[in-house]
Amino acid sequence: MCTDDRKDISRVIKMREQRQQQQQRTKKKKNESEERFFVSIDDTRHLSINIEQCKQFCKLQYFEFAPEKELGMFADLVELMRGIIHFEHARKRDLMRSAFDRASGKEQRKKVVEDDDDCCVGVRDNRAIEHEVQAVSFVSQFCAMMALAEFTLLSDSEWELAMEEDFMFRLPMTIDWSQYDASLLRKFLERNGGLRIGLPKFCERALVFKRGVAVSKHEGLFVREKIDLLIEYLLKRPVMRVLGLGGGSDVGNNNNDDNVKKKLQQQRSQVKNQSKIERKTLRRLMPTIMSVIKNIHKKLELSEPTYKEVIILYRENKMDENEAQFLNIPSGAGPLRLKSFSNVPMADLEMIFPGVKIQGKFMDYLSNGITVLLVILGLIWSFITGEALSERGMQLLTVAGGKLSASFANVNKAKAMYAAQMSQEVIKKMDSSGFAVLSSVVQDMEEQETKEMILAYAAMKGNKSGMTIKELDEKLETALMDRFGLKVDFDVHGSVEKLVEEGLVSKIPGDSGMYQVVSLEKALKKLDKKWDGLFDYSPSSGTTSKGKRAENNASSSEKTFSVAEDEFKMERDLMLLLSNADTERGKEAMKLTHKLNELNEKIADASVSMKKLNWRYA
Known about the structure:
Blueprint: H1 3-35, E1 38-42, H2 51-62, H3 68-103, H4 117-148, E2 152-153, H5 156-163, E3 173-175, H6 183-191, H7 193-196, E4 206-220, H8 223-242, H9 254-268, E5 274-278, H10 282-285, H11 289-294, E6 300-315, H12 321-326, E7 336-345, E8 356-358, H13 362-385, H14 391-429, E9 430-433, H15 435-461, E10 467-468, H16 469-484, H17 492-501, E11 505-507, E12 514-517, H18 520-534, H19 543-617
Antiparallel strand pairs: 1-5, 2-4, 3-8, 4-6, 6-7, 7-9, 10-12, 11-12
């Protein structure tokens, strides 16, 4: 082979390699451009189906060919599980209610009699310390309950991801953290140091819980929003850079590109319990000035990850003494607050916080600033030309004052309008507050535990040889995805652990790590026995029977006392009768004695007479 042929072959190979590299770069850029519209979100563990749907799903999925009797037994098993779980959480629900009433200042006030001033101060101090301890305890119990209901705390990375973009609520705002108390959550986090890791900086002021993720989509021209974005690219960022305040979140600069690449790399290395959620905001769809100009007349579809349920817990800052006494809060701190929201877009998450201060848009400040600048320049020119004190100058001053007042009023009017818009959005998103939130979470906790146990038992029931934890997890997650389209991270460890505690599942001996369920008949017997034991009542033992025995003892004592009193009365009457009888006998004896003496005298007289008679007749 000649040298020219070898050169041609090497040139062809090199061109082919360059073409392949170009294709790989093009493909990589295309993937990156597509991935720019997605973010990685942790999968939820919450089962958003109700118990009836869960029961029907189990019958169709795992009891499809089961006889009618077995289906009836499974339905009874579900009802027994619901009843037992509800009973077990009843006491917890009552304790949480009383603890929340104390922490929120709704508990019935107790009248305390305090004679001494020193005693009064000591009693108040003790009540304040006790109130703070109970408040921290309530927060701990509430967080544990939220974990059972499959709520998770908002992390610092999720908060930063939310604040990167604007969605439908493109208003500049700041949160006034001075309205929030920091002592309660600080004590709670000091006691539970592991929870602080990965939480936002405001975690000592408020805790945000979220559950469930969806996608919110809106389609339209968004002309006003496009103009605002164009002004931001053309004016705001350059002005902010000149003033040294930073240029905002510039999508087109190199630093931001590096940040985007790093985030894309993190998203590629996603773990099993994460999903990619579409996120198309105006900044992502139009990252440059030219892209805004090209799409100014086009309809766009925006999408944003949305939290289905959001709950915020916080305590208001300290109040004055009179208000604290009115709310019955001994420590003087503000009341504890619970608020729940639904379908909150991630980019609009800050609007749920109380104490949000709305700021004017850059265009409002710019237009009014230009007006003020022109007025000031006009005043300066009038002073330079010597017309400041003339009639024309006075008119100019009057107009300038009017313009300044109007400019200030326009800014405040814009702020009020934006605040009204935000209030309307918050009202739409808000579900409930106070004890209504607590009651709803308790019910969700009971239903979540019931659904997890039902699904785990039914899935293992169809496999008589047993299943491992991993097999059960994959089987349930795949079935839920196919049936309902639910991408969940099923809490398989917690559900199996609960079934083992109830005796419905047992681990197969050995190192296989397999678990096996008992039959429906045995499961019903176990749960029925436990249900009967929850209401173990008999007349011979119990508070009611003790009360009856006390009543019987009381009545028998009354009867004994009555009988003793009657016996004493009878004895007294008998002694009185005997005494009266002796008196009567004495009187009769005296009469008889007198009669006997009279008779003896008569006999003696008769004897003397007889002797005379005998002597006369002898």
